[in-house]
Write a structure and sequence with these properties.
Radius of gyration: 19 Å
Shape: globular
Number of domains: 1
Strand order of the largest sheet: 2-1-3-4
Helix content: 25-40%
Oligomer: single chain
Number of helices: 9
Number of strands: 4
Largest sheet: 4 strands, antiparallel
Distance between the termini: 34 Å
């Protein structure tokens, strides 16, 4: 049996790697190998047995590994509402009746990057003219920083799905009666987008889901 490397060994190996990786090439590789699509469908099928609603959101975020420095992982999730937007996140709309994804709701890149050539949320927001393939992503970044994200997404995709905060407020009593703990005011209050600007954006290190 082949001996597996320990977390410490993997950490040292990752830290000593001086290779310069191209984020676009890595992203293309992940899309081509089919692993993201496979995991998205696995997550959707699993939650189809849990959720009663015909449509719900399925997505993933890219986060750093808590134990191994330099290792990034994809965390998949499903929600009955539009999840809170964050850097390095992709969200899709899944239809249980059709057993298929019907809309790509949004894809957000990293907040910042040490590479001046990388198209991040900050650069997309601040750059007037961007390459055609990044135009839609720029619109998502602008809606995020301008505090109009939910309105923009619903209008763009012609949907009326509630956001996370709106859903919790609407179903507060039902959740309490079902045994869920009442959310503290700081969580259920509407998100203050005025607190978000490129230098102060929260990075996608800790995923906000189970």
């Amino acid at each position: 049996m082949k001996k597996r490397k320990t977390a410490g060994a993997l950490t040292l190996e990752a830290a000593s790697d001086q290779t310069k990786y191209n984020a676009r090439e890595i992203g293309q590789h992940l899309a081509d190998d089919g692993s993201i699509e496979k995991n998205l469908y696995e997550c959707a099928i699993h939650h189809s047995k849990i959720f009663d609603e015909d449509e719900f959101c399925v997505g993933f975020v890219i986060t750093s590994d808590p134990l191994i420095k330099g290792i990034m992982r994809r965390k998949f999730f499903a929600m009955l509402y539009l999840p809170s937007p964050r850097p390095e996140q992709a969200v899709f709309l899944y239809n249980k009746t059709l057993a298929a994804f019907t809309k790509r709701l949004w894809i957000l890149p990293a907040a910042f990057s040490g590479n001046p050539q990388a198209w991040t949320m900050e650069r997309l927001y601040q750059t007037v003219n961007v390459p055609k393939q990044y135009q839609t992503m720029k619109e998502w970044a602008e809606a995020f920083y301008d505090g109009k994200f939910w309105e923009f997404i619903r209008k763009q995709h012609e949907i009326n799905m509630l956001s996370e905060i709106e859903y919790l407020n609407t179903h507060r009593e039902e959740l309490i009666q079902a045994g869920a703990k009442e959310m503290p005011p700081g969580i259920t209050e509407a998100f203050d987008f005025s607190k978000i600007n490129p230098p102060k954006i929260t990075d996608a290190i800790e995923p906000l889901f189970n």
